[in-house]
Amino acid sequence: MKHLSHWILIVALLGAVFAGCSRQSEPISPVYPTGDYQPSLATGVDPDHESALINGYRVLFTGRTYADNQTEFRYLVCGECATEDLSTFFLELPDCAPELQSYCPEGADIGIYPDIQIYGIKWDLILGPINYREYCIAFPGDIPLGVISVAVKTSTVGTGEIAGPCAGDTYLISGTAYIDADGNGVKGATDESGIAGVTVTLDEGGECVQTTITDANGEYSFLKAPGTYTLSIEATTDAEDFNEELFGSFDPTGPTSIQVTVGPDSPGNDFGFYPRAEEIIEEIDTGEIITTGESAKFWRKQVHSAMRGKSPKGKVVYDPGTMAQFIAEIQELYLPEPFQFTPGNEFKEALAILKSRKKDPLQQLLRELLAAELNHVSGRGLVENPALQEALLAWAESVYIDEALGSEQISGSTNAPLLRLNGDRLEDAIGVLLRMNGNIGGGSGGGG
């Protein structure tokens, strides 16, 4: 049997725990969690909650393990002084814990246990008085120890308390890694997008270091016991993430390390970044960053052909259905504006943007942004640096929204912008987008 020697030790320890009972535990086929698992009775928790005797069955908390951004809690159940079969074993899933990620053995039900009216996980698996079985529950993230309810059903339901996930005082530490389009160090609620794939590190005074990666909205969170912690975003990590590219092409607009104290929750621990536009332009111009992007002129032909219902021919690559799908995907990217088209009028409004030859910098930004997003959804652009492309497009959208405030109607937008120009920022965004769209050297891409 796998880990046989360790199970001999466990049985010996159980024998000491079960002293006074006339029965000797004999193993059934234990269900192992994935990986090279070895149970342990060294839990480091309050002894009162390491063990519970319920309806003649001994429930042992055998340990908590945090690895690969997952926390697992393990239990061993044995008929110490039982005279009846165990028919149901139950563990509470407290509100403070995230959604259950996995469990063992298989075949459990999750919900309110009617006999005790507590939410949790129950196994309706028979366990005889002379047998034992291992159980485990696992959650995403680092989940601290607490105390939960446990139940054993034979002919009756008995309850007790056992060490488990985070029942007790735990608090949320959260924040966002984001594009700081105005560089003021404060995240705008509606006009600055998050950055996905960034590793955030939490340090508990050097005793324990944990990491998590920002989600599609740039958000991250940790669930921790009361205390003081240090959050940071490092330029170099061991994970497959965006950190190296982020620090290679962006500057932080605030500290990259934040000290937080929880009890109560600590939200709003944000990390802002602004792109080094001149460096990015130079790297595209010299070929250090490769782009396969097409110009606004190319996309104008595609949209015009789609609006007329024509099939691909010559320089027209996409059929109307594909172009409609591209437009739909663009409307779901990043911020609600600038691209929200009138249903049934999408091609006409997109074409009006792509055809614009006004020298107005904001109109030029809008045109190049639409072309860049069409490149993105069609698999073009910075194909070797897709995460960088996403961050730059989110930045360009934020620049546009921040510059377009007011009441003048712009095609393709239901809100009305009143120009509030910041020449350098607009120039930077236009320059980067032109290069992403294949206009090496900074051509306008709008002619022809």
What proportion of the residues is helical, as a percent range?
A: 25-40%
Q: Give the CATH class of the largest domain.
A: Mainly Beta
Strand tally, please? 18
Span between N and C termini? 75 Å
Dominant shape:
elongated
Contiguous uncertain segments of 5+ residues: 1-44, 406-421, 444-448
Structural class: alpha+beta
Architecture per CATH nomenclature, i.e. the level-2 architecture of the largest domain: Sandwich
Largest sheet: 5 strands, antiparallel
Description of the molecule:
The protein is an alpha+beta fold and 448 residues long. It has 3 domains: 162 residues, Immunoglobulin-like (Sandwich); 105 residues, Sandwich (Immunoglobulin-like); 159 residues, no CATH class. It is 25% helix and 26% strand. The strands form 4 sheets. A 5-stranded antiparallel sheet has the order 1-2-3-8-5, with no helix packed on it. A hairpin with a 4-residue loop joins β6 and β7. The longest helix has 18 residues. The chain is elongated, with a radius of gyration of 29 Å. The termini are far apart.
